[in-house]
Design a protein that fits this description.
- With 236 residues, this protein is an all-alpha fold.
- It has eight helices and no strands.
- The protein is globular, with a radius of gyration of 19 Å.
């Protein structure tokens, strides 16, 4: 185990220059704070009466996202932009509250399994992207956008045809899409750094959206499987 860890560290060190490694530390540091902020949002919705997910919080989420993306990084406004990011992630977690509340009523272990699965998938794909050759996975951008367009089409179809097969296909395509974006966004942020874009706050935003996307899809997929299993037991 120690040999494998040492090999990984050496490979990581050789492939990435010190400034890039420092940038990645900043990115994943912001990502960690964002996930904790989202967890706080979930907690507030589910276990307190301070704030609940509603239309106003949804508008607030979009407003903070817009504020973050239109506020350029000038080196002096990092605290302001970080507050936008943490506010956005908090309200995103708040928005997950109703879904998680419903899933907990089905089986509380689903949330734990989904979180563990999300962490394993995210870390695995991130490491594979970081250790891959520079720019190797950037070609995925066009494919991922095409899949995203297909998902939009599936969403419109689902509005008129309530077919379980279409919805289930939509879920698995979405999960696959988010995993692909983890690989793509990880390499793309490194390329943007080499091109002079050192905005680690915005780079961490992309990874946070990937993480939340994987978690949401896994929660829904596991919940549907649990409900199907319960229905089969009742029929038997």
């Amino acid at each position: 185990m120690a040999v494998l860890l040492n090999t990984f560290v050496n490979s990581f060190t050789k492939r990435l220059e010190p400034p890039v490694r420092q940038h990645l530390k900043n990115v994943y540091g912001c990502l960690s704070m964002s996930t904790l902020s989202a967890a706080a949002g979930v907690y507030v919705h589910m276990f307190t009466n301070l704030l609940r997910a509603n239309l106003l919080t949804t508008l607030g989420t979009l407003g903070l996202l817009f504020a973050l993306t239109v506020t350029p990084d000038n080196g002096k406004n990092q605290k302001l932009r970080l507050s936008y990011l943490l506010g956005f992630s908090f309200l995103s977690g708040l928005g997950l509250g109703p879904l998680l509340q419903l899933v907990i009523n089905i089986n509380p272990s689903i949330v734990v399994s989904a979180l563990l699965g999300t962490t394993i998938v995210f870390v695995s794909f991130s490491i594979s992207s970081l250790l891959a050759e520079r720019g190797r996975w950037l070609y995925l951008g066009g494919t991922l956008i095409s899949l995203l367009n297909i998902m939009v089409v599936f969403s419109f179809i689902s509005l008129f045809l309530h077919w379980s097969f279409i919805y289930q296909t939509h879920l698995y395509i979405g999960l696959f899409l988010m995993c692909g974006f983890v690989i793509y966004d990880t390499q793309y942020m490194i390329e943007k750094y080499y091109m002079g874009n050192k905005d680690f706050i915005l780079h961490s935003l992309n990874l946070f959206l990937d993480f939340i996307g994987i978690f949401r899809y896994l929660v829904i997929i596991l919940a549907r499987k649990e409900m199907s299993a319960s229905q089969r037991k009742r029929q038997d």
